[in-house]
Amino acid sequence: MISQSTKRSATTTPAALATPILLLILLGGCLNGFAVRISEAVNVQGMATVFLGISPFDLIVLFAAVTLIWENRPTTEQAGGHVTIGTPEFIAVAALMIPSSATSWLVVALYATYQFTRLADDRRTGLLFFAGLAMTSLWSSVVMKIIGTPVTSVEAAIVAVVLSTFTDGVVQSGNVVGNPDVFSLIVLTACSTLDALPKALLGLAAVMWLSGTLQQRSYIASAIMLAALYVVANLARLTIMAMSNDLYDLAHGPIGAGIFDGIIVASVFALSLCWTPPYAKAEQAT
């Protein structure tokens, strides 16, 4: 004979375990996806690199996603709150065994989307952040490799125009720009504006959610301002890098990268916490 307490345990245990398993699968996929970046960063800069090759925006989004899912986890089999543990979970775990960061990010995107369609509570927002994190990572690791040549060529052409106002003899060919007699810069996809901008925009959404200011119109206005700032800041940094070998080392090294990342991160927090469009203030007042 099964006691009442045993029956209660039997019904609450699946829901109590399902959310941790959901997070373990998604976090495991993210860790596999980050593995290549961590390895490359450690090989180039050693353990001294601050974020081990991971974008600070990725960490912010990850924190927001985990917080949303964990804080809204169900303790009972309530409606819309049950995450079953079955075939999709086994398939996801098996796919994560493949030693490929792109495959891991694809698993995270698909599994988060699958659970998003099944749940009916606030964990769905956390799943959207996980899916967004995976999609921006796939954008950088897969899509940018496909469209990288025309994108970097366009940015090199813009840098050539700006650089020509400071120095003579500037030549641009494809993604190579500079004065051949002094120094030439090869604009790689990892340095292009389109490579990292999606992560910054997703990070903006995460910070706005964490600060309680996430509204559609406010986000769109802030995202436009952040995108404009990012384009100008990155093109300015590329222009400095193309001037000389010494300036390249300064702008591309830890100091320059730290300053650039600091400006963008500070801008994200400023747009999220300190600046609210007039119409958003009116919406909040009503």
In short:
Helices cover 73% and strands 4% of the residues.
- Beta-strand content estimate: under 5%
Helix-strand category: mainly alpha
How much helix is in the residues? over 70%
Strand segment tally:
3
Q: Nearest-angstrom radius of gyration?
A: 23 Å
> Mind summarizing the main beta sheet?
3 strands, antiparallel
Low-confidence segments, given as residue ranges, are: 1-13, 46-50, 279-286
Distance between the termini: 58 Å
- Shape call: elongated
Q: What letter string, H or E per element, gives the SSE order?
A: HHHHHEEEHHHHH
Q: What integer is the average pLDDT?
A: 82
The DSSP helix count reads 10
The largest sheet has its strands arranged as 1-2-3
How is this structure best described in words?
- The chain is mainly alpha-helical and 286 residues long.
- 73% of the residues lie in helices and 4% in strands.
- The chain contains ten helices and three strands, in the order αααααβββααααα.
- The protein has a three-stranded antiparallel beta sheet, covered by helices on one side.
- Helix 2 packs parallel to helix 6, helix 5 packs parallel to helix 7 and helix 6 packs across helix 9.
- The N terminus and C terminus are likely disordered.
Topology, element by element:
Blueprint (H helix, E strand, L loop, with lengths): L3 H42 L10 H16 L15 H10 L4 H18 L4 H42 L6 E3 L2 E4 L3 E4 L6 H19 L4 H26 L3 H8 L1 H20 L4 H8 L1
Antiparallel strand pairs: 1-2, 2-3
Helix pairs in contact: 1-3, 1-4, 2-5, 2-6, 3-4, 4-5, 5-6, 5-7, 6-7, 6-9, 7-8, 7-9, 8-9
